[in-house]
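Retro notes - structure team

What went well: the batch runner handled both jobs without manual restarts.
What didn't: labels got mixed up in the shared folder, which is why I'm recording both outputs here explicitly, each with its sequence directly above its tokens.

Job 1
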Amino acid sequence: MKTLSNVKAASLGLQHVLAMYTGAAIVPLIVGSAIGLSGEELAYLVAIDLFMCGVATLLQVFVTKYTGVGLPVVLGCTFTAVGPMIAIGSLQGITAIYGALIASGLIILVISGLFSRIAVLFPPVVLGSVVTIIGISLIPAAINDIGGGQGAKDFGDLRYLGLAGLTIVLILVFNRYGTVFSKAAAVLIAVLIGTLVAFGMGMIDFSPVAEASWFQMVTPFYFGVPTFNATAILTMTLVGLVSMVESTGVFLTLGEITDKKLTDKDLARGYRAEGAATIIGGIFNSFPYTTYSQNVGLVQLTGVKTRKVIVFAGFFLIVLGFLPKVATFTTLIPKPVLGGAMLVMFGTVAASGIRILSRVNFAKNDNVITVALALGVGLGISMNPAIVASLPEQVRVLTDSPIVAGSLTALALNALFRLTEQKSPSEKSRLAKVE
């Protein structure tokens, strides 16, 4: 195979950055806005997230004795963490988010070598239920932004609805008629166009970009010393486990694309890289990181499977993390534009959960009950958290988070039904013939 020049590798690396930039930038915007960060704090959150995406990517690309799957993968914040982080930040404060990240990252490091055995606890009926709960519980946040933001005096103004509608239509058009690359970057392109239209409507002030400095250093514990809350740690650990299941699928897919047969040790190093990235993310006040599947499509599209391209992508992301002007520009995206993009992206998370559930055999009543109760408990608590407010403190560790409550319901019911499963007469007959 012909050696890839640095110029071409850099251009392909930049393409990978563009494909994942929307997810990398929108996650801190959503979380930061929801927990009431100032514009300056929001800009730092975006910048540190970009920086950590680069660090996490390089941790995964370079193989050491303990970390790195060694595939051309790009890492970014997992969307399954958005809802849980908002809930933790709203109830226990932002420092509890980072305490939970550090603790959950350590747990992931510890169990990484055993995860292939633990993964059986997350069959499609459980994993699909969890992802669906996360996606659906996030949609109200998108609707609030589409209307102009929670508490806006002109909430639901036609200008806001028009901008959100334009953003959604553009995403649909690029997904339907665009090239493979523009499909991967459809949300980013639509958000940029929507922001330009909002600027033409006089809804954006670019003075914060002019006032922002060109360079800033990343700062450990920028938002304060981490605090450790049992409910928050359990929530983020469950998110981490779900992320590991999703990453396994991406690793195996990329292994096939790159003709690399992955061993259990390769997968364990990949899990450890994600755990290490999550710990570092907690220290520098960013997010948990997972492998981005949209970049797998670019590997297939370009046919370039070398890790050199991803090294450049990681380097570009790290550089962006030191440039406050870029991060500040991102924070100027109007809420309706962001809300329109969020509606599509969060809906996609829910749809991913439904897609996973499509692999479930719903002819079995056990599976129907498992999904029904998991969704009922998770979404019920999400809609009315006061229902568990009077429970003892020890029990509320398991019920305060809709994600934890729904996930544990699915895990418990799945385990119960498996343990008490009885073979039908026809199955017993088939087994007798085999014996």
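Job 2
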Amino acid sequence: MSLTDFFSPLNPDQFTPKQGFLTSQLGLKTEIYTGKFPDLEENTYDMAIIGVLDGRSAVNNEGCALAPDYFREKFYKLNEGAFSSKIVDLGNIKHGATLADTYVAVKMVVSELIKNNIIPIIIGGGQDLTYAQYLGYENLEQKVDLVIIDNQFDIDDDNHEGIATRSDCYLNKIFLHQPNYLFNFSNIGYQTYFVNQESLSVMDKLYFDVHRLGEFAQDITLTEPIIRNANMISFDMGAIRSADAAANANATPNGFDGEEACRIARYAGMNDKLTSIGFYEFNPAYDNNGQTAFLLAQMVWYFVDGFYARKKDFPLTPKSQFIIYRTSLKDGSGEMTFVKSKKSDRWWMQVPYPSGQSKNERYHLVPCRYEDYQIAVNGDMPDLWWRTYQKLS
């Protein structure tokens, strides 16, 4: 089956030069599917915009299926930055006869694009589509690090007859999926009053990394090492405070502000490991002044800007580009090794594989902060090191 079968082309009267785009605007810089389906196998594109017209499982947010074209209306009016973008817009994935049909379409599209070294930028639709995004990695023979930006954990009771899953419980599907290719899950920005203590206990037992909104109140840069560890990211627009992103029926007063959301998106773009990203739950029905559509457009713009600012400094490149630091634990139990990039000043920790767990590698590299190194210098083991080691066991 060709990918063409999954997509509806965009209206040529709405997304073509006839709209009067300036030569500097993304509307003229992007290859947009309005007639002939683009050739994806010629190494022509770096990123692909994908609209998904399915919000039937978005809890209390009916109308988010209309998001993609409202996003495009704002995005294509933005000027290209200090980069030469190679973006293709594949149009919209058709609303499947069942939700499962939509999931299959998203899965196959994501998988095929990643194989062609093209990053899918998914504009949903409900956040349950994250599950379909995750399924796209099933046949890629790799472990997946998943980062979710959300104000809660979507692991509610998934007992709803006739529905494949819902936006408030899709994580159950990911955690329980077989074969299991999820290595790590991280949540950024949960708000404690939206999360029950049992869920927090589950995250702790699984050694997953979950971070309260308040952790980033004074310093949004603390999100960068978490994001740098992701292969795929799902961003719920409900994680942004309602004053900046009202177009979500579940919007709440607290959350990230618009500038912070854009910085998070840029960190995502800069992540050399990242191979797909989805932005979900934007609902045009609540966007009276178009502010949320503008913010989402700017977030994707920052993602693109971050992509073209990638440092390509993951510590597998020549050792001359890095500084190695070694510290000893004060209880004498061992040594810890840290790696710092000379290009970006970013840090990683080396976490050794337990004996017999990996035939090809001696250690796993996990992004970290300078503060983790300082903890080790003082002779203590960073919590991130311990949780990673447990996941490797």
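One thing worth noting from job 2: Residues 205 and 387 are 10 Å apart (CA to CA).
We'll revisit the folder naming next retro.
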